[in-house]
Design a protein that fits this description.
This protein has about 170 residues and is an alpha+beta fold. It contains six helices and four strands. The protein has one domain. Helices cover about 60% and strands about 10% of the residues. The N and C termini lie far apart (about 90 Å). The mean pLDDT is about 80.
Amino acid sequence: MHLQHIQSKIYEIRKQKIMLDFDLAELYQVETRVLNQSVKRNNARFPADFMFQLTEKEWMFISSQIVMTSASKRPKSALPYAFTEQGLAMLSGVLHSEKAIQVNISIMRAFVVLREFALSNKDLTQKLKEIEGKYDKQFKDVYEAINFLLQKDSAQQTQQKRKRIGYKL
């Protein structure tokens, strides 16, 4: 299972990284209906912070980003279920096939890579802010000097264009 393929199926909703039931069903090579039935039979394992159903607005937002291979992938009347990282870990206890075990391992690795990427970007952003703060003062001084010179040059041109009055020597 390619990590990039899995990462392309991870979305952010309600400030959480999630995967949708039909994408998971595709990865586990089962029907979405079968995956959801397994989850419903083990409902106590999936509290609201592990799994939730998307609202119509959330589904419209995500579906505008998804390129679906077939319209039958998700009926328009049914809103998909979203699984958080904890919900995905719980799925491994519900789905017992060898395929499910391998897919779950790949999914967990994909989440780890995303988390590491986010942390490294956070460090990079912090360093850029530090550099920006350090050099902002120097650049501000340079900009002020350039503006002063431009204004001075503009004032001199205006002076030269004026018609002189008074005695001419």
